[in-house]
Amino acid sequence: MSALLDVENLQKRFGSLRALDGFSLTAERGKLTGLIGPNGAGKTTAFACISGATKPTAGKIVFDGGEIEGKPYHRVARLGIARTYQVVQTFAEMTVLEAVTVGALMRHPRLSDARAKAADTIEFVGLGPKRDTLGKSLTIADKKRLEVARALATEPALLLLDEVMAGLTPAEAQAAVALLREILGRGITIVMVEHVMEVLMPIADHIVVLSAGKTIFSGTPHAAANDPAVLEAYLGPPIT
Ligand SMILES: Nc1ncnc2c1ncn2[C@@H]1O[C@H](COP(=O)(O)OP(=O)(O)OP(=O)(O)O)[C@@H](O)[C@H]1O
Ligand SMILES: [Mg+2]
Q1: Are 147 and 154 in contact (CB under 8 A)?
Q2: Which ligand has the shortest distance to the CA of 48?
């Protein structure tokens, strides 16, 4: 069976800045692919291109056998790609149930159906007791869960997670990892940007490393941790 997502040689320019300059990534079905790279490497831009939030300048994105590069966000979402945001969306004045219902409406146009789907999703991510809490009153960890719930409520085949562990305590991060395993257990494919390597290494099936817009490594977590080019991207050139 072919990969669920295949990104080939993606380019994205903002004026003269080459934010992506040869980004390639393959995500196998049902697996977790970790996307790592130094600050400003282009990880969030890569997610923006894949999800249709922005158009790539050149390159190919094949999702589930069809080319999707340049398609608008709402069409990509309907095809089955959902994304969370590095800077959490506030949903300040919405309750958890209302915010997740917005996601569920995509596939359930009747409000009562969307509410029921949202309620299920909220239970699944562990926010059940907070379904009537306003977004602004949630802790960081719960805001991140809300982001994941809103994305899951669109019933994606592919979930793009942008630093959902950032700012969590070690205990909260562990709980988040348990949730990721449950999401994988439902057959959903995950591509995840994460800076905390200790969190990513045990759960990632595959690692892709982006540096200055270019994919410089693709392989197992173990190989990534021992790859000279990866180490140099993070630490600078070896001192001679
Ligand atoms: N809308 C935009 N307009 C202009 N430049 C942008 C835009 N979005 C991103 N950039 C630039 O593109 C480059 C890649 O940014 P991006 O946010 O994708 O990196 P990142 O790998 O997600 O970084 P971080 O680890 O800090 O989140 C940066 O130089 C950034 O300043
Ligand atoms: Mg980013």
Answers
A1: no
A2: 1
In short, whether 37's Cβ falls inside 6 Å of ligand 1 is yes
Three-point CA angle 106, 109, 112, nearest 5°: 115
For residue 45, the ligand closest to its alpha carbon is: 1
Q: How far is CA 52 from CA 26, 63, 76, 120, 240, in A?
A: 17, 12, 6, 27, 44
39 Cβ closer than 6 Å to some ligand 1 atom: yes
Name the amino acid, one letter, at 143. Answer: K
240 lies in a domain?
A: no
Residue-wise pLDDT for 39-74, tens only, equals 999 999 999 999 999 999 999 999 999 999 999 999
> What are φ and ψ of residue 183, in 5° steps?
-65, -45
Same domain, 5 and 73: yes
Burial class for 51, CB neighbours closer than 10 Å (0-12, 13-18, 19+) = buried
For 47-56, how does the pLDDT look when each residue is reduced to its tens digit (9 = 90+)?
Answer: 999 999 999 9
User: Which residue is listed with tokens 């802790």?
Assistant: 139
Domain limit, last residue, from 96, 120, 155: 155
In testing the pocket of ligand 1, which one of 35, 45, 83 has its CB within 8 Å of the most ligand atoms? 45
Domain ranges, residue 130: 88-155
Collapsing DSSP to helix, strand or coil, 57 comes out as coil
Q: Report the distance separating Cα 224 and Cα 217, nearest Å.
A: 7
Candidate from 11, 12, 13, 14 with most ligand 1 atoms within 8 A of CB, to mutate: 14
Q: Whose CA is nearest to atom 14 of ligand 1?
A: 42
